[in-house]
Amino acid sequence: MSMKRLWAPWRISYIQKKKSGRCIFCQAKHSKSGHYLVFKTSLSMCIMNIYPYNNGHLMVAPLRHKGNLRDLKEQELLDLIKAVVKAQSLLDKVLKPEGYNIGINEGQIAGAGIPGHLHVHIVPRWQADTNFMPITADTKVISQSLDQLYKKLRYAQCI
Description:
There is one protein chain. By secondary structure, the chain is α+β, with helices and mostly antiparallel strands. It contains five helices and five strands; from the N terminus they run H-H-E-E-E-H-E-E-H-H. Helix content is 31%, strand content 16%. Strand 1 and strand 2 (44-48) form a beta hairpin. The chain is globular.
């Protein structure tokens, strides 16, 4: 079997960029704008995933830098779940998905890309969101720009 290739020359600047080593969630919680911060509660935040599995992929995280559910206080756990529900409500308004994949990966071995800061993935799903591209080219097509979706999510909170 031959190896499949997807040429993405625009990614070279990201690959070669010196990594700060700073937590994206901790950076986002201090941001007034930027970092695709959708909303913040007193104990949690919701940001857009800039490498989404599907259009509208959001992440909800506690404001405190904690790596697992056991380290959160009861109030933080409740606020985290309420923030997940709020994120779903925003996605329902803006994208009208037919379902969701919601999950937490604790630890790097479990797939956590940022293992030190617990976060919940919220991935909207539609009946037709899988097409021939993943099957024939092992490639996922994201149908909307991050900036466009970010503006719609921020606006949906105001109405």
